[in-house]
Amino acid sequence: MLDIIGAIVITAIYAAIVGLLVGLSPLSRPTKLVACAVAALWPAAIILVAVSGGLAPGATGPVPVPVLLLVSMLALLFGGWRLLPGFREALLAVPLAALVGVNATRLVGIFFLLLAAEGRLSAPFAPSAGWGDIAVGIAAIVLVMTMMRGSVRPIWLGTWNALGTLDLLSAVSLGALSAPGTPFRVFTEGAGTQAIGTLPWTLIPAALVPLFLLVHVTIAVRLKSMQGAPHTLAAVRGT
User: Fold this and answer.
1) Who has the most CB within 10 Å: 75, 80, 135, 239?
2) pTM of the full structure
3) Cis peptide preceding 200, ω within 30 of 0
4) Which residues does residue 137 pair with via DSSP β-bridges, in sequence order?
5) What is the Cα–Cα distance from 122 to 175, expressed in whole angstroms?
6) Per-residue pLDDT reduced to its tens digit, 40-92
7) Using CA atoms, how far apart are residues 14 and 214, in angstroms rounded to an integer?
8) What would you measure as the largest C-alpha separation in the chain, in angstroms?
């Protein structure tokens, strides 16, 4: 039952993030449709890999499959950021409040805690990733509400953005060091990240985490571009 609920929630979150980022960008309608269609290909490809047995431990040698999928999507996203000015400019045009707000979906971290309770994930990965995501998600909600009521100091946005990024990097590192069947596994007690090697949970590091990292980078660039502007010395509004 937890897997079914997780599949529904994770798919909905991925669709919501892509839809929000694309929908609020200044791209033309045809371009938006193409962008959404292309974005849908990635989870479809992951499902095909899973069906063909590609998620099995050791299927790609010593490097866990979720890590390879994560790195692949990061390469695609940040390659697009670097090489396609239109892609980068479209992201930077999304309202700041929306960029912060998509992180409210980080409450999905509660599934890590539920999987740990079932013995399918273990410490330190599960509690660190779970509670970290929940904290970042709650903070995102508070920040967006503050931005909608008026403004929020740039230092708070910058601090939250840095901590949100650090949480993701920490989760990825702990996950890699807890992966079963790898020679570099450090945390050997319990299930490690066994559940992450199965659907739908592989979609979190392979699809959601890269999107969150891209959003954090976009926020950082937006905040940096605002430095020194008169209206941002005291506060940043949700635009």
Assistant:
1) 135
2) 0.91
3) yes
4) none
5) 10
6) 999 999 998 888 877 776 666 677 788 889 999 999 999 999 999 999 999 99
7) 13
8) 56
